[in-house]
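We modelled the chain as a single entity of 227 amino acids. Its sequence is:
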Amino acid sequence: MMRCLVAVPFALLLFPAPADAQICRGRVSFEDQPVQMTFGGTFPGDGIRVFDVGVAGGGPVGFGGAGIALGDSDFLNGTTIGVGGFGGGEVRAGDRVRLCPMGSASIAFLPEQDLFFATADARVLAVAGGVSVGILAAETDVAQIIPTLGFSIGYTRLSGTIESDGLPLLGIPSLSESDSIDDVGVAANFGVGVVLSRLVSITPLVTVAFADESVIAFSISASIGFR
């Protein structure tokens, strides 16, 4: 159960920000499309599925945005909802290499769970920072191929509350207890982005995250730009 509670917010928060878009992430450059929408799905295993949508804006140097993500799991009843924002900058490290330092902050609300004579709810707050490198490996008038590699470190706080009205007839008192778990994790990801006509991108990505337990996730995202 705890692995499930941690894995969903890990997918929402420590993996790349939902609205992230730039060459260093294997996606459409903000130089070509200053405003973009992104759509994606992340699958970290254990029957967990996370889908997100976001919007971002930027230029040749700086960028930022926000997104919302919905997650479900075979082990939880209901839907996890996450919202977050990110910001970063792009540095040219050569004609074909882009380097991006980035940071993000997010919060996820897990669905309330019915336990034996009690209910439990939890939320996760997370901040993360890292760097991503994109290499323009091939380019034609129609398409760009951009391998990307990233590293990040993140802090999460999982807070939960268990409440019960008790069973007065049996002498069981009411209960209300809260607790939190702090964790620090690191993550590495690798992907290959395909950018079409400098307008649309499709980027599959594999992420390995390490905290109290390791998580390996596959994700795929698409972005479309608007001038």
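As a brief sanity check on the tokenised model: The radius of gyration is 20 Å. The mean pLDDT is 81.
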